[in-house]
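Researcher: Last one for today. Full complex below.
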Amino acid sequence: MKTSWDELALIERYLDGELSTTELTVFENRLDKEPLLKADVKVQTAVRTLVKRHYVLKMRSQAKELHAHLYNDPARRSMRQAIEALFK
Amino acid sequence: METINAVLQPVQLDESLYAALYDEVFPILASIISRQGGTRTDAEDIFQDALIAYIEMQSKASIDHPAKYIVGIAKHLWVRKSRRNGMFLKLDDYEQSLTLPEEIASEIQPSILLRFLQRAGSKCMDLLSDFYFAGITVTEIAINHGFSGAHSASVQKNKCLEKVRSMVKEKQLHHEDFMG
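Model: Here's the assembly. Have a good evening.
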């Protein structure tokens, strides 16, 4: 069954720790009683973990490209030579 | 209204920020790693991860001395990497107080599920990355991804979330260890 956007927004606020004390109590009571909600939270947690991994891997790949560009930049030739000397 | 396929511009590292920190920090770090018996590739990998950790941390709280923070995180990463070769690297009080962000601390290998999501929904993964982790406003996200405004970006985010959730649910049904 499709989760409503309002329900998703509530789950997101729960995961971000943004629910008020009252809202949290209500939400946790629902979690105990509603297996579907519990499953939705599990899926949303998985989605966030996967998006985070995607984000870090993408940043790593961009950092590698930028690094290679800067390392080979003619304007930074003396810096490159100094670094190469360190690892001889 | 834009379709999901119109989502443009992936997560971007700020080139001028990277260049400034590269000029300031990489020579210091390369010197430390070389004295520790590491290679230039070690220094590069560690600098890049430390810089990503800095960007992530900075999106949550202001960091007064970026160079000091990056060197500190880099030293932690080096200590972890070189633990087995018996090298000793002293951390000062500030450096000892730093903790590695979870995703930087662990070696991330793209799981089967993540590779699937990156193939089938890469634009959505990029958009969700910006919403959850880039530390930028919805208006900035709208501009970066070519949407007409914040509302449109939020609508697309919800559509993407729905799409990725359904893909995850599908895999979850068929594989116990779907996060693998």
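Chain B touches chain A through 50 residues (CB under 8 Å). Residues 1-10 of chain B have pLDDT under 50 and may be disordered.
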